[in-house]
Amino acid sequence: xxxxxxxxxxxxxxxxxxxxxxxxxxxxxxxxxxxxxxxxxxxxxxxxxxxxxxxxxxxxxxxxxxxxxxxxxxxxxxxxxxxxxxxxxxxxxxxxxxxxxxxxxxxxxxxxxxxxxxxxxxxxxxxxxxxxxxxxxxxxxxxxxxxxxxxxxxxxxxxxxxxxxxxxxxxxxxxxxxxxxxxxxxxxxxxxxxxxxxxxxxxxxxxxxxxxxxxxxxxxxxxxxxxxxxxxxxxxxxxxxxxxxxxxxxxxxxxxxxxxxxxxxxxxxxxxxxxxxxxxxxxxxxxxxxxxxxxxxxxxxxxxxxxxxxxxxxxxxxxxxxxxxxxxxxxxxxxxxxxxxxxxxxxxxxxxxxxxxxxxxxxxxxxxxxxxxxxxxxxxxxxxxxxxxxxxxxxxxxxxxxxx
Length: 404
Ligand SMILES: Cc1cc2nc3c(=O)[nH]c(=O)nc-3n(C[C@H](O)[C@H](O)[C@H](O)COP(=O)(O)OP(=O)(O)OC[C@H]3O[C@@H](n4cnc5c(N)ncnc54)[C@H](O)[C@@H]3O)c2cc1C
Hints:
CATH class of the largest domain: Alpha Beta
CATH architecture of the largest domain: 3-Layer(bba) Sandwich
Bound molecules: flavin-adenine dinucleotide
Mean pLDDT: 96
Largest sheet: 8 strands, mixed
CATH topology of the largest domain: FAD/NAD(P)-binding domain
Structural class: alpha+beta
Number of strands: 20
Number of helices: 10
Helix content: 25-40%
Number of domains: 2
Strand order of the largest sheet: 6-7-5-15-16-17-14-18
Distance between the termini: 36 Å
Order of helices and strands: EHEEHEEHEHEEHEEEEEHEEHHEEHEEEH
CATH superfamily of the largest domain: FAD/NAD(P)-binding domain
Strand content: 25-35%
């Protein structure tokens, strides 16, 4: 059992680690370079997505993570937004039908509650969608969170359990003594000491660790989002468009896979793929996205070409929304590893890395719970072999497309 811990980074993973560790009676200090939810966790449209989680550790933690939200709703001291309205991936071209039929079949074999919807069923769930939509895969267990509200609730939960939370503290250096990490130093010169340091710094991890001579092969993927002003409720589930399919090996490995049916001329020409998606939050705002690219650093700026592609997507697939008022645009950078599961492990005495989450909405809070079990010296409730530090991982090359 560790008596004290410093958690670096207050996204879903760090905030959850702080909450669960504090609940175990550990003396927790949570350090965040900006403000809570500054990273990917505060910037994503909130898909709690089982639909496309690869079988194995990724699906297992997502199922546990989905269930954990019911507990968190009861236990956290402030509310957060969670909607259990399912999720779908629609398609608009008859050539795509056999791929979706095989996809639904394969996912059922993986134990998911999946079905194939027809035109009318899709239009009933997604009011503004183009009239000629052909169908969709649907997963009843997908859900949606308003991610900044979840991060905030976890941080408030940690504080209520006795954690100290310091925002505006950028950790720059690990402090070691006799082969063990015993604390961190921050850019403002302050030092913070503890039994163990947990690095939950998402897309910033690779560089922070490299500066401390620790190799952590965690790459970066930028996604851009357009949010409308509130509109009347008309979209219930979280929604992917057909272009997203090519991002997933779950689709690409199907016998019927035909990339030509899932790629636009522009994507082919530029190599900039779209994760076409929409979700409507409880307050009515709609979030549309997401062009993807792979920056060398954590670059959270939006681009002309990225935003243009989102606007084209809205006009093409949601023709009635051409006059919707745009409220704001942003980008976020998610962390990823070459095998698409995070690193969660004690990499040297006193140093735990919990980073590299591509799908942190379903896995982030549960990862924090697992880390707290490690800190308590208990066997984690999930097998951690797949996410161990020493496994072979390829570097993620900036600019190169990565399939999830
Ligand atoms: C646009 C977008 C869409 C996405 N869509 C989905 C989705 O639909 N479903 C899903 O499951 N996932 C989605 N993701 C991925 C998801 O957001 C991430 O998996 C998750 O947020 C990772 O959480 P994290 O806590 O590891 O990292 P982050 O949320 O990035 O948190 C890391 C924190 O560490 C802080 N930090 C970094 N360096 C330091 C330092 N040196 N000192 C102190 N603090 C530091 C950062 O400021 C940040 O707050 C999306 C991501 C983006 C950007």
